[in-house]
Amino acid sequence: VSTLEIVSRTARETAPHMTVVRNGNRVMTCAAASARARGTTATVRDLFFNRPVQRKMLLRPGAIAATCERVRQLLARIALAHGNVGFSLRDVSRGQLLLETQPSVDMLGQLRQLFRSTPHRAAFRAVAAECSAVGARLSGFVCSADAGHRSAELQLLFINRRALARRDPLVRLVVSLLSRAAHDDATPSPRRTPGRRAGGASVPKSRAEAEAAHAAFVLRVELPRQEVALLHDEGGLFAHLADERAVHDFVKRAVATGRVGSGCARPASKSAGHADDAPTGSPDSRPRADEARESHATPAVPGGPA
């Protein structure tokens, strides 16, 4: 449905090369006419050139801006999954820079770069979640639903650097865990003033507000390739896990505690039984339920917006 021009140069190459794809068919591969630094530039032209109905729809007010925003969101997900690569997105026809990131291992810094112009400030007050086990690793940030957080855009879960669809069972599990934490915070307690979390952070004052709000999380999960198959469907990318129960238990512990190491459950193999039976360190290092609940309430990220 378009003409795609790709110009690329690797670190080992002295000159860039160019590939042109039109309507899904490669029409040309040759040396690029101009020099460029190491990296890749992809240029899309003549969008919907062979589909007059869709091309006419782009002439409607706001249609081009909406299309660019969808592309920006997609590229933002790719940038979060590959923090060691810098990305930029430009609307050449209007001369606008829509997105730009620098290579960084700091996920929080990438979040600020990608979403500084959007109303997702609540995500920057999230709790750092990091967990390691034999054959599995989870890292990222989680934040239970705030009354002022009305978008689900920052509900991102990556498995082996691939973003899962929001209907994937693992994504739904994290949403359920954080929504349950928001409901618990909205329930009055004799030891807690309604509407306040530990540390002074605000919480939804009612269950209705909690249900209307959205949790926010950006999590990266690394699993052995033989333990997961990533399949595309109409709704996006879905993960088929070899031992779904063990991985789900691992993610539950990691999200609930927000701690490193011994507080997390080790994914067990099918022959080993339930993941709760796996060793989790000494009894003193095992997180208690009240500690796990407090981990949702502590704004552990310094320097974030108030």
TrEMBL record:
<dbReference type="InterPro" id="IPR038973">
    <property type="entry name" value="MutL/Mlh/Pms-like"/>
</dbReference>
<feature type="region of interest" description="Disordered">
    <location>
        <begin position="183"/>
        <end position="207"/>
    </location>
</feature>
<dbReference type="GO" id="GO:0006298">
    <property type="term" value="P:mismatch repair"/>
</dbReference>
<dbReference type="GO" id="GO:0140664">
    <property type="term" value="F:ATP-dependent DNA damage sensor activity"/>
</dbReference>
<dbReference type="GO" id="GO:0016887">
    <property type="term" value="F:ATP hydrolysis activity"/>
</dbReference>
<comment type="similarity">
    <text>Belongs to the DNA mismatch repair MutL/HexB family.</text>
</comment>
<feature type="region of interest" description="Disordered">
    <location>
        <begin position="261"/>
        <end position="306"/>
    </location>
</feature>
<protein>
    <recommendedName>
        <fullName>DNA mismatch repair protein S5 domain-containing protein</fullName>
    </recommendedName>
</protein>
<dbReference type="InterPro" id="IPR036890">
    <property type="entry name" value="HATPase_C_sf"/>
</dbReference>
<dbReference type="GO" id="GO:0032300">
    <property type="term" value="C:mismatch repair complex"/>
</dbReference>
<feature type="compositionally biased region" description="Basic and acidic residues">
    <location>
        <begin position="285"/>
        <end position="296"/>
    </location>
</feature>
